[in-house]
């Protein structure tokens, strides 16, 4: 069930009515409704994998109780490592087993050894990387005594499987989400309106920008050998906007839907393409995953307080793990390692925290420098996205080589440019960048518009144009979100 589908619209309207008008007087029944609707939402993809989600939830819930209730340290460690091992085991089998087997076989074949192996012919359970990390963070926090174990199974199960974030995040923490689930919620009009605005902005990014970019990106990346260097540069840039608008669009819709249910989810993106260095980019991109690896991997390894060599090692570990989290392919691992290489100079020069609270520039020259920094950072990120988007390292390298073909470099052409004009897309991208910049310090896009002195009619004309743009860009069939495959 896709957020950008009629099925979801009907599903959510029904849940919204039941949630606020039928079950709102009883928190336990309200949370039970959330759990049933979340399981229905997940089973809509493939009901067979619902059992995997339920089993993982039961294991982590019971492990948390055993860790909390036992006095013996050995028993605590047993339940802790049982939960960690089983969760990572499921992730390893479904997501990485074939990758390791095929890599192992290919390595030995280079030395003349023929090994007969078997691979799994199974679909990757949607959202497994996200809900597994929900459970892992909970068990770790209970074991470290950061939070008490949750005794109410329904409340805990809602935390793990809350349908707006179930299949593609944000990756929530029990410290933030569980207290909201346990607290009685009342309908707030302003919060609900902000939720609708965020859903509208998410749909605009997904349908108008990301889905339109994908038409050109798919054609260029599939036929890169036939196109000029300029076309390949265009393909890489359009993919940068596609993946950002696709993923952040999903996050916006998820956050907006949760607001309509009286629940606040963490922000997952903060205009990352206006970052001034790579460290700044990773504070703004997929924040919930970056902070997860920081808190549960980087810091336990010692962070940056274990000497220069080990600190650099730790940086490579979290970036490579982040790449591997995205998928079982050497392209993702290389993408993670490349971002680590980008990050190291900022770390060594100790300016990786330079732009944490500095978005405004006073002088004209400082503004020019900021603009140049943004362009350089965007260029580095876009170059790395080539590996992320390519099917293999060989294809990625061939694509990059193609960029440096100087014959007809400035000629922008692809099969799709003959069928569809780039001009509407470029216009939408300009509008998108302007809106992103204008609202870069706002938690909810369009809030500043609502608070301006423009007439009500002018404001609603703006909303109307956004809705019309979405309707005109809708394809015959709803397109999936990129991060569903991770």
Count of helical segments? 19
Structural class: mainly alpha
Counting copies of identical and different chains, the oligomeric state is: single chain
Morphology: globular
Summarize the amount of helix as a percent range: 55-70%
Name the helix and strand elements from N-terminus to C-terminus, one letter apiece: HHHHHHHHHHHHHHHHHHH
Task: Tell me the count of domains.
Answer: 2
Distance between the termini: 16 Å
Mean pLDDT: 88
Radius of gyration: 23 Å
Strand count, sense and barrel status of the largest sheet are: none
> Which regions are unreliable across 5 or more consecutive residues at pLDDT < 50?
none
How many β strands by DSSP? 0
Quote the beta fraction.
under 5%
Task: Describe the structure concisely for a colleague.
With 486 residues, the chain is mainly alpha-helical.
Characteristic terms for this protein:
19 helices; globular; mainly alpha; 2 domains; 486 residues
How would you describe this protein?
This protein starts with 5 loop residues before the first helix and ends in a 13-residue tail after the last helix. α2 crosses α6 (153-161). The chain is built from 19 helices and no strands. With 486 residues, it is mostly helical. The longest helix has 37 residues, at 73-109. It folds into two domains: 6-112 and 125-186, no CATH class; 191-276 and 355-481, no CATH class. It has helices at residues 6-21, 27-43, 50-69, 73-109, 128-143, 153-161, 174-182, 189-222, 229-260, 278-284, 287-298, 308-326, 330-348, 364-389, 393-403, 415-419, 423-438, 447-451, 456-473.
